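Forum: Protein Structure Q&A
Topic: Joint prediction for protein chains with partners

I've read a bunch of threads here and the consensus seems to be that you should model interacting components together rather than docking separate models afterwards. I'd like to see that in practice. Below is the full input, 733 residues plus whatever partners are listed. Could one of the regulars post the assembled result?
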Amino acid sequence: LGIDLTTLGLNLNSSENLHKTFASPWSDEPAKGEPEFMIPECYH
Amino acid sequence: DLGAIGDNIGGNANSGGVHDLVYNTQMLEAAFYKLPQPKDSERAKSYTPRHPAATPPSYPQVQAPIVNNPAFWERLGLDTLGTDTLFFAFYYQPNTYQQYLAAKELKKQSWRYHRKYYTWFQRHEEPKIATDDFEKGTYVYFDFHLANDDPNQGWCQRIKADFKFEYSFLE
Amino acid sequence: VMEPDASSFQKQVSLLFAEWYRLSELPSGTDTPCIRFVIQLHQNGLLRGDDITERFFRVLLEISVSHFGEVMQSSQQVQSSFLAIDIYAKLVYSILKHCPVDQGSSKLFLLPKILAVTVRSIQKDADEKKEDFNPRPYYRLFINWLLDFGSLDPVHDGINFQVLSAFANAFHALQPLKVPAFSFAWLELVSHRTFMPKLLAGNSQKGWPFLHRLLVDLFQFMEPFLRNAEMGELIRFLYQGTLRVLLVLLHDFPEFLCDFHFSFCDVIPPSCIQMRNIILSAFPRNMRLPDPSTPNLKIDLLDEMSLAPRILSEVDAALKAKQMKADVDEFLRTRQQSSPFLSDLKQRLLLPPSEASHAGTCYNVPLINSLVLYVGMQAIQLLQARNRSQPQSVSSDPLAAKAALDIFQTLIRDLDTEGRYLFLNAIANQLRYPNTHTHYFSVILLYLFSDAHQEIIQEQITRVLLERLIVNRPHPWGLLITFIELIKNPDYNFWNRTFTRCAPEIENLFETVSTSCG
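Posted by a regular:
Agreed with the consensus. Here's the joint model:
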């Protein structure tokens, strides 16, 4: 009968993209530390 | 009994694989005890200052973790004193997450980065002219006032009237 | 000039690596010493891209991995030392960034070679060490590179895509069927936030086929383990990890799952109903789905129902592989009843006995899936053309649409229980978000139900729908509207079928599901 997918640690109703804080397929915790960020060239 | 015939988890070769099921199961089991750990993905966060200076050991020797927390920067954006701190982080911590967060917060406070002048501008009033390519009006901008004899040399916010902000320079 | 023989070559490379380590630990803020070092390597003839280059990087990798260890700290903490791996990753990044390249060639010309060396080393290490193989240093190496190359300025979009596709090819070569001991690290890399989202976002979707291939690699590895509904702890762990990745895709990149649903259904075993439902529940983000339980919902009046879904999988590949496509086209064109096409159909869908045992079924499931969707698509095109040219026509359906129905009715009649289940699954796999396929196959399924001469067929049609509805969510929209139509529309006389009352728990089940469907 499958499983309750809301118990896998992902906020499926989030308005934000999940991949930014997706830590690992083996963890139901969000990624810690700096998420992905991009510094435009002209900031240098 | 109305579905596909049952499984045959046995030693049959996998479709297209080079190993059989038993071997794959053994390898999976071994790998299960050597999963990547969260720290395997994290890099040393040591921020190496461009010109490291020796400071007394009583001074913090590493950045406080809070500088990685976006909420900390959002708080700064809400209080005018904090705005200067945002500019400090932007200009003195290049290529770091702090610079990224400071820029994000400045943008939220309606500052706009001018790519040609490397300067942040904020409308002082509604622009007099606005087209698809530029807007023109009076702006506040954050600048470094360089005047050796002037005691209040340093970062300051100045007003610039009649400035044309071409959108091709908007980052 | 580097010594050709192995031991002195190894020694020289080791000395160079030590020199690099010393340089990269310098606190200087500039890259100058590193750049000078890279140019020196280039002048030594180590970066030409020839077999010396391959040996150079292979030896460096072996040295780095040999220095990976887990040291027990005083605090009983196990501290993994990735220092050598990190230093090696940084050397590769510096080489690719600063190595002088001939006019016109890409700055990244060495990347595929370095990745090929890495892939071969991992395969060799895994084959030799078997259970003792440790994936973690290699995982760390790839993460370093993904983070470093990810910081390349997005302006060089081409560079970004070159890097991503090179890594996608490397991960394909390291797929679980080839290196099972690397499976968990592999899926973590493939789904990593520095890789998967970049492969899917931007680059005008050029990265989609790469991720599609990697997911098929994963499903093919898992398929034999997943045929059995009961999973051991190990497979359950891998299965749940896969569900997490699919949920991220469903939430952030649903269009990717929509467009490749057909080939994913080929490699997901019929027993993996919830996993398949995740893929079939995906719908384009700009679409709003009407609540299926809306009273008097006129689905055929929905605008989206007249739009064909985008399908990036090659629908007729299996038909071509079995030299069936020409015969199918011929029958759709002529609908010649005398041809042996229909009577031979069942036989042609069977697997040779030699293949049936490891496939876990007597039938060629991808071939059935291909036949059903290909035939349906031909019929839909002609029906739409007819409706466009004669909007109010009451003329009979085009020949091919009737021929398509002949094929479906032949299959439902001639196939045995298992074959019919797989055939009905192939139809139910098209019941997704509002589009022409959902509409057509929903009508076909209900037509086959009402047209059936044996109740066992109606029971099987009901079973195929029901087993997809009783599993935990999500449930595809097209599945819900089809089942609701079946139980609500008196034409199907559903509730008077004996099987709806064959046992108290079955009766409860139907009540529960029909209640939950509103």
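Chain C touches chain B through 57 residues (CB under 8 Å).
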